Amino acid sequence: GYREQLDAALRFLREGDDYLVVSHVQPDGDAISSTVIIGWLLGKLGKRYVLANEDEVPGRLRFLPLTGSIVQLPDTDHARRYARVVSVDCADFRRIGTVSQSFADGVQLLNIDHHPTNDQFGAVNVVRTNAAATAEILYDLIAHAGLALDMQVAEPLYVGLLTDTGGFRYANTSAHVLRIAAELIGHGVSGSAIAERMLEMMTMPQLQLLQRGLSRLQFTAGGRIGWLYIEHSDLAQTGAAGEDLEGLVNYARNVEGVEVGILFKGAADGGIKVSMRSAGKVDVAAIAQRFGGGGHTRAAGCRLECSLTEASARVLAAISEVLPS
Ligand code: 5GP
Ligand code: MN
Ligand code: MN
To answer: What region holds the DDH domain (predicted)?
Structure first.
């Protein structure tokens, strides 16, 4: 049961002296929030810890406590290897990226996540697929540990919930999520200031990417698939970072009649990163898994090692096959 999983997680966090906390590459709001929440929790338990990610913390998340201490690993100057690792918001080991080069042989992993495609890669696993965000599970973990909330942890908890529910709009916005959010606002979190920063505010490069993306938006399968692409050169030309692509796929998905929206992103090494969003009838996690990726039924992703033309042909064909008639 869930209580036993939370017990096992707390035991894991209490047993050691020293931990590495990691999340997925190209971290989103839930990934960064969950990383710093575990940092806060380890601090309360009197443990030493290092917070790490393969990629930089997105600018709009840097206001959160402890994000300044998230390091990028592997760091060529530090040959240190970590024997106890907490992984948050990662569906599988590969999502941790190159940070895993800093793990010791025989590393002990605690895997806390909410993706249905999670493959239980930890020695201890707390995988709750009906949780809206990993941050929701961490709220339960903190309560289970009997620790009182403060602003340091209330803000990242709120950001994790807000971002993974698309601003409390997606189907995963449960009564439990809203009750937690209400409690966090009661602790002094400013819902409006965080929504402004996380959801409303656009950077100029982000707007320029949006202009390019929308100019290429096309529809197929009788208007039931909407798709667009961003080439790697678009990032340099607009001054955008990977994080500026977040939300772009929704413009394809949100068009009336569209069942699946897709964004193809050219990667630096020539591969293609695919983001898929479903209006509800198509399980895009299943499509993503066919290409070695994963995610949630309504939001999933994968990577293809081929040209944009080939990637779009293969993914569009796979989705057309499963579109309801
Ligand atoms: P996004 O399209 O925003 O990158 O990702 C949407 C969802 O799919 C997220 O929950 C993310 O964790 C998952 N996802 C995206 N790319 C991959 C991937 O390459 N592998 C796996 N396993 N999950 C992915
Ligand atoms: Mn995530
Ligand atoms: Mn998440």
So the answer is: 20-160
